[in-house]
Amino acid sequence: MNYDTKLGNLNSRRSLPQLLQKAHALDGGVPQSIQESYSILNESSVIKYVLGSMQPVNQRYTEICFEEGDRVASSLKQSLKQNGINSFHEFQGSVPLDIHIKGASDVDVLLIHSYLTWERPTASHKSYTPSSEGISMITRMHELRIQSERILKSYFPAVYVDVTGAKSIAMEGGSLQRKIDIVPSHWHDTLDYQHSNEIKDREVRIYNKDKRETFGNWPFKHIHQINQRDRIYSGNLKKVCRLLKNIKADASSSRVKFLKNLSSYDIASLAYHMDRHLSMPSYYDLGLLGRVNDFMIEICSNDCELGKQFLTPDGSRLILDNMERQAGAMALTLEINSVYKDLLQDIAPGLNESVGRKHLNTRPVYI
Known about the structure:
Elements: H1 3-14, H2 18-23, H3 45-54, H4 59-82, E1 87-92, H5 94-97, E2 107-118, H6 137-155, E3 160-162, E4 169-172, E5 180-189, H7 191-196, E6 203-208, E7 213-217, H8 219-232, H9 236-249, H10 253-259, H11 264-272, H12 285-304, H13 323-347, H14 353-361
Helix pairs in contact: 1-3, 3-9, 4-6, 9-11, 10-13, 12-13, 13-14
């Protein structure tokens, strides 16, 4: 795939699909077409592609993601309340982190039951009152899931509501401007949360309807850790996350089957461990690609010996915890290395890598 094609794919991802453009035709607040700053640079296609892959999606497009999630969740919560179930909602995933790469990104909405569980023994200053109704949390979660399926099908008849997923209800089409995933869950107050009272320490228990059980998740700790490190390095962590995700999206067909095993969560987690290698002035963004290339080669060498040691930012598991994810990381490394070599050849044609790298690291581009 040449870089004019890659650049075209990038632009298409970052735009609204034609169907949604028509839906917003009379909405003056929604840009129908955007002239991206990277696209008007007097630079080669490979440079535009690398820099464009690092940029956040148009702010208004991101706002619509939240608006659609709020609209669906609000209708659902109101109807659940009428049926005796109180609930809240929060957003998780790439959109609240602003590392999504599509103009019409999918939206993950946690639908959180008002009842909760907590870690025992509790902190000395905390007091929790067990329910006297004798209804288990699993029973409550099952009811939340079943009622949510029924309500969403009733309230959004033109929308395709897929209830086959064990962990979420997927919604698409009809009046929706974004694909929405509703994830039934409840809070579990860990001891860390009981002491800090900060959402990053609050565990989310997600309901699996096929197994009739819940499992722990820490989406807000993940968001907190990524945001904190991104601030330290002036936005470079999120640039790298978007870059890696775009390179994955444009990967050669021979590597797609391996890359499917590496999620957005995994990619952000790997980028998080670049840490000090993210330290680079914003106008030397091209140099970040070289840093990413070196990092990925290092963690994937010797059958991912180093990569196998890295934990996710929330500390919940090893990132490359199975052979499938390791193969995905290796495939992504090959894709990155290909783009890196093409960029070196573009900036310093005919020169060896050492000299080319110096050009790459000192080549300012202002967006």
